[in-house]
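Write out the 3D structure for:
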Amino acid sequence: MYCLYSVRRFCHFVVNLRYFDLFIMIVICASSVALAAEDPVVEIQRSYRNFVLNYFDYVFTGVFTIEMVLKVKACLHRSCPARCERYDVVSAATMFYTVYYHHHLQRRSR
C-alpha cells in the first residue's frame, strides 16, 4: 500500500514541477515542426528525411505517453483532480495508434 502511495506522490510531484509544462510545450512545438518537415508525397523508404522523422515520431509518442501516465496517476491524488485532462489521454492514444498503424503498414510493404 505504501509503495502505491509513494508512486502516486512521485507522479504528483513531477506533474507539479515548474518546468514540466514548459518541457511538454517544447516537445509539442518540436513535434509540430517535425510534422511540418515531413514530405507526405514521398514514401518513407525513399526519403531519408522522412525515415529519420519517423523515428522522431516514436520519441514524441513515448514522451506524450509518459506525460499521460504521470498525469493520470497524479489525478488519483486527492489534491489534484483538475490536472487529469482527457485531451492528454486522447492525444497520446491517437499518436500511439498512428505509430502502430504506420509500423504495420511498413511491414506489409516490404
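Helices lie at 2-15, 20-37, 48-75, 86-109.
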